[in-house]
Amino acid sequence: MANERIKDAKALIDGKRWEFAYYAAGYAVECALKSCLLARMIYTGWIFDDNVKKVDDCRTHDFLKLIQIAGLRDELNTALKTSLAAGDEFVRNWDTVNLWRVTSRYEPCTEADAKKLYAAISDDPHGVLKWIQKYW
After folding, report:
1. Residue-level pLDDT at 58
2. Buried b or exposed e, range 25-37, using 16+ CB within 10 angstroms
């Protein structure tokens, strides 16, 4: 689903539909992180552990909360530190992506903002989606 949403974002950018392109691009990241949650559930059975977050906690749209629940906080910190040492590309991309909110679908958006978010997510090899795909 994440790959389909990023394709949707590209089609919307090509159609000059900036607001929804921005939203769809961010939604691709949310879908990707929720795929990581599903993978964690499948491989570890953590959902059955009473000491772990409840399923309702997974219904968030907050990327940092999803990363925490998916157990990817250390991986994100490592990626950010590595990026800082190598030119900041992933750090810049993450900072751009982390500004997205589910409510962005109700807000105006410029062409520059939509293209910047799309690039931060889809960049190869430093895009946020590329990083998330390692963990699903």
Report:
1. 80
2. bbbbbbbbbbbbb
